[in-house]
Amino acid sequence: MLNGLFNSTTIPVMEQVVNFTEARQNILAGNIANLNTPGYEVQDLSVGDFQERLAHAIQCRRQPEVYRSPGEPTDPDEPTELAEVSKDPRNILYHDKSNVGLEFQVTEMVKNQIQHNMALAIMSNQFRLLQTAISERI
User: Fold this and answer.
1) How open is the CA angle 50-84-9, to the nearest 5 degrees?
2) Mean pLDDT by 10 residues, the chain (138 residues)
3) 3-state SS of the chain?
């Protein structure tokens, strides 16, 4: 019952965005920490690839579910498309050995932080709406 309640909101989607932006922030911080390290290869996560897989997972979510009898449990071992969004190791891109400037890395970190904060704000609002609906205070 609770899974259906949460899955009808944007909370699972925002959870994936928060997880992605957190992982990317760690990688970008590592790039800045190692900018002057000889031979260090700058790393990043592919934002475009993540967005494509997230869009595909959202489309799969919108498709009608298989009818189940009331009370019939769903298979908890069956992975959902949304759960698989951040599990693909192909996200890590190794750029050429050129040294990316500090300004570029900081700009990417700021954009990533804004996306992270937006996802957290949306999740927070969704939880408040659910709390209001459950407590029946309108």
Assistant:
1) 85
2) 66 90 93 84 88 86 56 51 54 48 85 94 90 76
3) CHHHHHHCCCHHHHHHHHHHHHHHHHHHHHHHHCCCCCCCCCEEECHHHHHHHHHHHHHHHHCCCCCCCCCCCCCCCCCCCHHHHHHCHHHEEECCCCCCCHHHHHHHHHHHHHHHHHHHHHHHHHHHHHHHHHHCCC
Sorted by where each begins, the domain ranges of the chain are 2-135
- Torsion, CA 106, CA 112, CA 115, CA 119, rounded to 10: -130
Contact predicate 43/110, CB 8 Å: no
pTM of the model: 0.69
